[in-house]
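During the no-cost extension, the postdoctoral fellow (Dr. R.K.) reprocessed legacy sequence entries with the updated structure-token encoder. One reprocessed record is reproduced below for audit purposes.
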Amino acid sequence: MSGGTAVAIFVFFAIWGACFLCGVVLLNLFLFNMDRSRIKACLKVGDFIVFVVLPPVLLLTFHDPPWVRQMLALRPDSAPAAWGILSLGCFWATALAAQILFSLRTFRPRAVAQLLVNHTRLAPFAARAEDWDILKEPPTPEDPRPGMPLPPRHQRALATVPHNSPIRKAILRWPLNRLDKSYQLQIHEIVLQFPQLPVAFDGIRVLQLSDSHYGALVSPRYHRHVLKEGAAQQADLIVITGDFTGGDYLHRESVALFASLRAPLGVWAIRGNHDYYTEAHVIAYWLEYYNIGLLTNRAVDFERNGQIFRLIGTEHPYAPVHDWASLVGEKSKETFCLALSHRPDNIVRLGRAGVDLVLAGHTHGGQWRLPLIGPLFIPSSYGRRFDQGFRQVKQGLLYTSRGFGGHTFPLRLNCPPEITVFDLRRGPAAIAPKRSD
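Re-encoded structure tokens follow.
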């Protein structure tokens, strides 16, 4: 290999890497903000061609291209393509700087007026190779409940990821095994204080579970560990904010995990994007079968002494909401509104409509969070604004859960899974929030 060819290869990969990182930042703003569409599908195919197919093809086709020497010289008479690449590099540097500045801001988040205490404890889990054996067993048929039709049929395209697959071997080796947080479950116990919370519901405990993505990606036994920890919280109300499935079409099994949960005010759920894109009606059937209330753009009121605690569930945009005010309903001084939304983006409309607290998921907190740079991908129309934790929008307070499952790749980088229990109190908003980790 000649010196010129080596320089060309080095410059090519440097430019390709810069464009890839630039694409990561831009994807947070554009591609991942779209709903499923042909445009999004075309862009995904385009990304694959540009970053996977073209590099080896170009390297095998071109040797010592003259534009490389012109670009390295950076003379005013250089090829326009060279200056275009230089401009792209400046744009990428600016975008990356903005990403880092946003990350620095998250080190000192804005105080949440309603937050009194945020206590976190760890409940780690150790996965074993035999955990995945349960997925090889044929499913046990369920007898139809009286008054319910037979279970709907659907495609079962189970594609298991064995524990000794190349991906898992790579993760189990140093340094990834030190970095992976997939089983480092965090249990948050959060005390929130609202002046508008009715006295009759003072001290109500709400457990949020989100984004389980049951399937072959994460140990099935780990899911049972999480739900055992959730049941121990003795919540008055249990809510599930979507994404039961993980693409393995284990619809019944993914819902049956939650069947043992009990709470005085019931167990309620909404569906997420993965549930809708893999036959939403099947998920709905099994939710009804296991007595889990499904809130598809509707509300349910819990009443005590004439005071109301309103639970709202929205599956927008998968099941579009056309009148947000009607969804929230009339709200008196003795009514508290808690809303469930898989996508955190809906806080904007819900906050305007008068909802007091919104619990969401969907983002996984980014799942891969790099030091300073932060999350690589956030599926939100607002970029990283609602990536995880608390955000105040209008009079509404949003909490975005990182969820306790995983998706796409069995790795959580600097982004451990979580379940959260909220202890809601009546009283004036706090002034000095306390945190205990």
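Residues 3-106 form one domain. The CA atoms of residues 117 and 434 lie 5 Å apart. The remaining legacy entries will be reprocessed before the final report is submitted.
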